[in-house]
From TrEMBL:
SUPFAM superfamilies referenced in this protein's UniProt entry, alphabetically: YceI-like
Organism name: Aquimarina brevivitae
Organism superkingdom: Bacteria
InterPro entries given in the database record: Lipid/polyisoprenoid-bd_YceI, TTHA0802/YceI-like_sf
Segments forming domain Lipid/polyisoprenoid-binding YceI-like: 22-177
Protein name: YceI-like domain-containing protein
Pfam families the record matches: YceI
Length: 179
C-alpha cells in the first residue's frame, strides 16, 4: 500500500516537474561594434547582463546597465556614457519579447525573437534571430543583430560621424540556468 501511494504521488507530480520553468542569467554578455572602419575601433562589452527565460511560453526579458559596458579606451567609455547613451539619465537598456513558434519540448533550435527594445528613453519593436542550445544544465541563447543609433535618439556629431557605423553590430550571449 505504501508503494502504491508513492507511485500515484509520483505520477501526479510528474507533470508539475515538466511544467513552467524559468531560467535565469546574471552573467550574460552583450558586445557591440560601432566601428565604421579599421582605423578607429569602437567596441565595448558588458559581462553583467541579466535575463529571465520562461520555457513554458517562450517569453524573455533582458536587462543591461549601460555603465557596465567596458571599452579599451577610458575616454571612449566616458564619451559613451556622457554624450551618447546619457547613462545618468537613461541607466539601462531592456528587452521584453517572445520566441516565435516556441516549442517547450524541443527548446534546442533556432528562433525568431520579437519584442520591445528600450534604449535611451525610446522603445522600439525589433525582431532578431537567435539560437538556443543545451549544454549540461545550461541553456545558451546567442544572437547577432544590428541597430541604428538614430532609431533610439542617439545623436552623433558630424565631426566624428565618419568614425561611427550607421548600424551597430550587437552580439548577445546568455547562459541560462534554472537557479
Amino acid at each position: 500500500m505504501k508503494y502504491l501511494i508513492l507511485y500515484f504521488s509520483l505520477l501526479l507530480l510528474s507533470p508539475l516537474c515538466l511544467a513552467q520553468k524559468k531560467y535565469y542569467s546574471s552573467k550574460g554578455k552583450i558586445a557591440f561594434n560601432a566601428s565604421s572602419s579599421s582605423i578607429v575601433e569602437i567596441k565595448a562589452i558588458n559581462s553583467n547582463v541579466s535575463a529571465i527565460l520562461n520555457t513554458e511560453n517562450g517569453t524573455i526579458a533582458v536587462l543591461s546597465l549601460l555603465q557596465k559596458f567596458k571599452f579599451k579606451n577610458g575616454l571612449m567609455e566616458e564619451h559613451f556614457n556622457e554624450n551618447y547613451v546619457e547613462s545618468d539619465k537613461y541607466p539601462k537598456a531592456t528587452f521584453q519579447g517572445t520566441l516565435e513558434n516556441f516549442e517547450p519540448k524541443n527548446i534546442q533550435k533556432s528562433y525568431r525573437i520579437t519584442g520591445i527594445l528600450s534604449l535611451h528613453g525610446i522603445s522600439k519593436e525589433i525582431s532578431v534571430n537567435a539560437i538556443i542550445e543545451r549544454e549540461n544544465n545550461l541553456l545558451l541563447l546567442s544572437s547577432k543583430f544590428f541597430i541604428a543609433p538614430e532609431d533610439f535618439g542617439i545623436d552623433v556629431p558630424r565631426l566624428i560621424s565618419y568614425k561611427l557605423a550607421d548600424r551597430v553590430s550587437v552580439e548577445l550571449s546568455l547562459p541560462f540556468s534554472e537557479n
